[in-house]
Every structure is written in structure tokens, then in C-alpha cells.
Amino acid sequence: MSITLKAAKREIVGKKSKKLRREAIIPGNLQGRKIENVNIQIAQKDLQVAIKAAGTTNIIELDVDGTKHEVLLREVLRTTNQQHFVHVEFYAPDMDVAVKTSVPVKVVGDNKLITAGGILVTPQSNLELAALPKALPEFIEVDISSLQSFSDVITVASLPAIENVEYLSAPGTALAYIAETRATRSAAADEKEAVAE
């Protein structure tokens, strides 16, 4: 997926940046190992589209006044109500050096324990990993169909290996399990009684 975003060098800095935001232009910065820091500004609607498409793991081609950079979204500051952008930071990585980042965990699959009344628990919404910039996964899938009993837990150690990706979160970190409820305990007790009879 190719994501491009146009930006311009920014002359307005500090508190005067409020003027830009009133005009739906978001101030930002571009940093990188091999480039000088650049103050930039981006149209709010263009930034919205790019962030939605790229997240924090897809490479964005950032065009700053005709000079193109391959970048990752590093940080987005929003207003307290999360409705508007305040500031954005991009990072131009070395494409041959692994970067460390946090990637969302995406739960997939169905499970009979949930159908029976169990509650899915996902203690971690993100996972720390390292990979070359172009090998960064958009998310890590956690398949809950493998959970056979309430004592089963999917941990980082049980995730399938992904080529060129190294998990940095501790191997024992719990990612998903299904908790028993009063209803499931009651159903299990009834089942035992029926078997005993």
C-alpha cells in the first residue's frame, strides 16, 4: 500500500502555530538519522487520511516542497477531546536498520468457551517488536480458537514466528485468555451432576 502526503516547510513556530490550526493546517516536525530536523505544516484533511491509512507501522512518502522522504508516524498530539490535531511528528528511519515500535494486537477466531458464557480477556492491546521499516506488520493476530479450556493462555511465546520480525515483549506476557463466569461454572457443575447420575 502506497501512502503519500504533501507537506510544506513551516516558518511559523511556537505560540503563533495556533494561527495555522485555525486555518486547518497542522504544524509538525520531520526528524531522522540521516536528515536535519525540519519544521513542517500539513493540511488537516490530508493528514487525517494518511494517519487512518498508515497507522504507526506503514511507510508514508512525505513530500516536503518536492523533496520526498520515506517516514513513519512517530507521534500525534490531539486536543483533550481527541477531536482535533495539535501537532504531528514523523521519523525518517534508515531502511536497513530495524526499528522498535508498538503494534496493535488483533483478536481473530471463534471459541466455544465464549459461546458457553466465558469472557474474553486481552490484557495487552499492543505488542513491542523490532523489524526493518518495510517489514513492520500492521498488527499481530492472536487466534483465540486455539484456547481449549479456561486455564489456557495465549502468550507472546506461543505466537507464530514472522519473518524479519523480533518480538520484544517478554515471552510470558499474556495476550488472551477466556475467564470463567458464574454461568459457566454453574453449567459445568450441572454437567458433572448429569454425568454422575
Number of helices: 4
Helix-residue proportion: 10-25%
Order of helices and strands: EHEEHEEEEHEEEEEEH
Q: Specify the CATH architecture of the largest domain.
A: Beta Complex
Helix/strand-derived class? alpha+beta
How would you state the average pLDDT, rounded?
A: 88
- What's the CATH first level of the largest domain? Mainly Beta
CATH fold node name of the largest domain: RNA Polymerase Alpha Subunit, Chain A, domain 2
Shape: elongated
Strand segment count = 13
Rg from C-alpha positions? 23 Å
Quick rundown:
The protein has 197 residues and is of the alpha+beta class. The protein is built from four helices and 13 strands. The protein has two domains: 3-92, Ribosomal Protein L25, Chain P (Beta Barrel); 99-196, Beta Complex (RNA Polymerase Alpha Subunit, Chain A, domain 2).
